[in-house]
Fold:
Amino acid sequence: MARETVTVKLPRCDPGRPCRVAWFVELNDDDTAAAASIGDVADCTARADAQVRNVLRGVMAQRRSAAAAFDYVAALSPETKANCWSLAESAGHEGWGRMQGLLGSYRWDWTDLRAALPALAVAWIPDTEQDLIGPGIAIDETAQLKHGDATACVAPQHAGCTGKVENCVTTVFSAYVTADGQAWADFDVYMPDRWARDFPRRRAAGVPDDLQFATKPQLAMRQLGRLTAAGLPAKWAAFDEVYGRSEDLRKKAARAGLAYVAIIPRDYQVTLPSGTAIRADQAVKDAVFERRSCGNGSKGPRYSDWAMTATGIPGQYLLIRRLISRPDQMTFCLCWAPPGRPATMTYFITIAGRRWPVEETFKTGKDTLGWDQSQARTWDGACRHTALSALAQLRACAIRGALTGRLTLPAGHGEDHAGSAPAGDGDVRDADLQIPLGDAPVPDRGGQPRPPGITPIKLSLAETARLASLARQHTTGLITRARLAFALRWSLRRRLHQATARWHHYSARLLAAGTG
Structure:
């Protein structure tokens, strides 16, 4: 296959003006190699880290602050608790003071780093020409569970991660989603009304006096405004029920030229073309359902029964999803597409399936980067930690993209570029340090036996973060070749187990759907 490389020049993100792309990346559509060495991981990590350092130096005036911030971002990994003590130890600091200063006393504005995220997302999460719906924005919220009442904006409120009322802090996120991946591109911490009215408590937690109460849909509208002003090339937006019921949010998405799929409550009033207003669930009796998949999940195609009917608003439709296993459980969505877009059920079902990746960003943020483990209590501390965690998530996307050949990052310079690996144990062969790339096969019919020599599943962001951490330790001499080979064997075991589990899940799902 002939190599086709597209060079994208990425300007420095300036918080004072719109930022359309972030800098120095090549998109590479060439076939990827069959395997990568740990040296390749180290090189890709060094190249991504050079750009991460540039981002932080543009946000922070003092080099020591930027250096501490880079160490913070690089230390966020599945093996490290996301508290200042553990991160400082992982980063090799002699004490925890620099990490605590980064979240507390150091002078830098976390909103400047947040403003840089959209450009980095565009640069490091490329879209493919074969993706007919293009990139988009998925908006949802998640919670950090807390025990006390001193953390900024903590309050008893519904936590989606547990499905019940918890003492927690809720953050609204916008994820940039393409066919190639997803990551956080914007966020806001939700301030409950009880905090908005309690100024002594706000001052104790460092919540700005001029911060006014805003509902979650209003926060989502602000994020849409910032992302579109930054030039994010989104084509659609997808919302959960909390946000989908907001007519103002839907109108803002439409004014921005974004197709939308917005989940609404079953009792939401919908106006039909005839002018009759009905509850959304009253449309079920006349609906004609078709069995469709909204995309592939970790356990196979996500089949459901779908139906669609027009509403009284031009271009808007009511989309109904009925679960196969629980026919009484239905989801209702209002959908709209701007002129020139295919307002078809296939188009809207595909967008509905792309809302789920925002949940994957929560899983990556919590399980891989420990976002919810932070012990920061002040407003600035919590927001700084979230901004740095978002940058760490994008860093993992850049490393994976470079490692799999989707991106070509420029070489780092000086301290930014990893050196050669130190000599290791003589009984470890170079072949023992190879990382298989590519993806494992999936069955095309139900009940199909798993092949005996199934290959590993494709690299996840969690596994990429682990490999990047190993590469850093190996190139700095903190682990031997024997220890590295041991860790890579465990990495292979995890990916092979995931490939086997996915095969059986796909096979069972296809069999249940009658495709055997």
